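call fold(seq) -> tokens
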Amino acid sequence: MEIEIKKALICLKEKGLLLYPTDTVWGIGCDATDKDTVKKIFSLKNREESKSLVILVSSLEMLQNVIDFIPEKAKRLLEEAESPTTIIYNNPKGLAENTVANDCTVAIRIPDHQFCKELIEKFGKPIVSTSANISGESTPKSFSEISQPILEGVDYVVNLERQKITEKSSAILKIKGDDIEVIRS
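ret:
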């Protein structure tokens, strides 16, 4: 795994697109703080830039670097979650503007996945994690379902977990004042 982390780090540092396994489905990723690199993901996926992307951080501490106010309820949910959980937060900072939705929110997950956590920790910045498919196509449940245009459109493909099959994406919750709304369970 260390060799794959080193190769993925080189890709991220050189402003490339990375295809990598996550705690949910295979993701296309890049430096979430670099607007031009994020644009490459929208282009590869044929996705409108008005649609937001999921961002991965390695820890609550890294989350606090991009979100000023994290409600206690959200912190408890993150601590107690037994499955991958993405939370949509208000007013992020330090992220590329094209990762932020029109309503000034961003979806962020702290993955429970050794490769992702180590990669993000060593990179020192959040990374994008969007499903490895062309916009409008179904999300691949395994590496073998990823389309050729995606495989050819990234700069590096991580050579781990290629046999893994994932049946479910993360739950998505949204902070609304003091409440948390379930978007996808």
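The mean pLDDT is 92.
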